[in-house]
Design goal:
The structure holds 2 protein chains of 2 kinds.
Chain A: E1 8-10, H1 12-20, E2 27-29, E3 35-38, E4 43-48, E5 52-58, E6 63-69, H2 87-100, E7 108-114, H3 128-142, E8 146-152, E9 158-163, E10 169-173, E11 178-180
Parallel strand pairs in A: 2-4, 7-8
Antiparallel strand pairs in A: 1-11, 3-6, 4-9, 5-6, 5-7, 9-10, 10-11
Helix pairs in contact in A: 2-3
Chain B: E1 5-6, E2 14-15, H1 28-53, E3 57-59, E4 63-67, H2 69-76, E5 83-90, E6 96-103, H3 104-115, H4 125-151, E7 161-166, H5 167-181, E8 185-194, E9 200-207, H6 209-223
Parallel strand pairs in B: 1-3, 2-4
Antiparallel strand pairs in B: 3-8, 4-8, 5-6, 5-7, 6-9, 8-9
Helix pairs in contact in B: 1-4, 1-6, 2-5, 3-4
Classes of the chains: A alpha+beta, B alpha+beta.
Chain lengths: ~180, ~220
């Protein structure tokens, strides 16, 4: 069943006007195969191509986190020490991290962005981006987390900025507009 | 204009401190062979670039990285948001991914030179894409044919694909593919620069273990090692 999203695409000009009125929050970078959770208002920022950014938010406690996953399934590397590297291990690890900050796992909702296929003739047989997105959706379902918005696929990289207090995600594509999740 | 190529007097090999082993790559002599092959290819590629743009070209020190793919990200993460023009090719048998990356402004300058546009601002987008793909074809073709000539291994590239995006997003694709297939990847990269210009072109190759084995074996046969 197609996912019902609450995303809204804005032109870059509109976005400029909106952001100029909002005090800038501290930006916290989340690198590849990393996850970060915060219970203070910050912008968690990451850039993805075929990787996927998983954003979780507890609206009751105003806290949230972001995981930048690389690969769909941890079974290819069972001894891996970075849980955020794989979709299936990143989701429970991010839930734990938010829970440790006072968030309630039962109140989490998810937003997801990434999974692009930037080069049409690159690694087609592997379908990396598509598999990453599917694995994230499966992992969220397994952990009973509702996916409320996503911006996935396509052929452009994405820069994601996720507000931990509001749960609002801003997805900027190169040469493209800004999508608000 | 006479072509002048400046090469670095030394070639270095960067190897990570990872203790993971690979079954295709055990001896330091093999690294040296691969780096020498890459340097031969880079020299030819630089000559071709210089011929096309009619300017002197400098080659920076080529390097080989034998590292877990995720660690490769650390080399670029500080520049992740920089805009780049990237051209991707692979070999016809998919044994090597090849990526040529330009700073976005530099690719526009070079395309303007190649198409004799009066200025970068007046560069036709379709002509720009075509020129950069053609340039990549020449540079990568020269690189591969030099290695083919030395080893006798046929290295036939596919047609080029160009994208413009951030460095982080572009590299992400290659790092993830390597991570999906290998615990450790061997990556060759080299930089070219127009004399007196800060911007550089980066050529990266992600060869498969099968291709590496073949190149090492053939090189040993050629040199009697």
């Amino acid at each position: 069943m197609p996912l019902k999203t609450v995303s809204q695409t804005l032109t870059p000009q509109t976005m400029t006007i909106e952001t100029s009125a909002i005090p800038a929050l501290e930006e916290v970078r989340v690198d590849m195969a990393e996850l970060k959770a915060e219970n203070r208002p910050v912008e968690l920022v990451t850039s993805v191509g075929s990787c996927v950014a998983i954003c979780l938010h507890d609206s009751t406690k105003k806290c949230g986190g972001l995981a930048h996953i690389m690969l769909p399934d941890s079974t290819i590397s069972p001894n891996e020490s970075l849980p955020a590297k794989f979709a299936d291990t990143a989701v429970p690890a991010l839930v734990r991290a938010i829970n440790n900050l006072g968030g309630n796992p039962a109140c989490l909702s998810a937003k997801v962005a990434g999974g692009a296929n930037m080069f049409p003739n690159f690694a087609n047989s592997l379908q990396i981006g598509k598999r990453n997105v599917e694995a994230v959706e499966t992992a969220l379902k397994k952990n009973s987390i509702k996916l409320i918005a996503e911006d996935v696929g396509g052929s452009s990289g994405r820069r994601i900025s996720y507000n931990t207090a509001t749960g609002v995600g801003s997805v900027r594509k190169f040469n493209g507009g800004v999508t608000i999740l | 204009m006479k072509t002048q190529i400046e090469t670095s007097p030394e070639v270095t090999c960067e190897i990570s401190t990872s203790d993971k082993s690979t079954n295709y790559f055990d001896e330091s002599i093999d690294l040296g062979i691969l780096l020498e092959l890459g340097s031969i290819g880079a020299g030819h590629a630089a000559t071709s670039l210089s011929d096309v743009i009619q300017q002197q070209v400098q080659i920076e020190v080529p390097t080989i990285h034998k590292i877990p793919p995720a660690a490769l990200y650390k080399r670029y993460k500080d520049q992740a948001d920089l805009p780049k023009t990237a051209v991707y090719m692979n070999l016809a048998d998919s044994e090597c991914d090849i990526l040529l990356m330009f700073d976005l402004a530099e690719s526009k300058k070079i395309a303007a030179m190649m198409t004799m546009a009066p200025s970068v601002e007046e560069l036709d987008p379709a002509m720009e894409e075509s020129a950069i793909q053609e340039l990549a074809n020449i540079i990568i073709g020269s690189f591969l044919s030099a290695i083919s000539d030395f080893t006798g291994v046929l290295l036939m590239p596919t047609t080029p694909t160009r994208v413009v995006d951030t460095l982080g997003a572009i590299m992400d694709n290659f790092i993830v593919k390597e991570a999906m297939l290998f615990e450790e990847a061997l990556i060759f990269d080299t930089h070219f620069k127009r004399i007196d210009e800060d911007a550089s072109l980066m050529l990266m190759l992600f060869p498969s273990p099968k291709l590496l084995e073949m190149l090492i074996q053939k090189s040993k046969e050629q040199t009697g090692l």
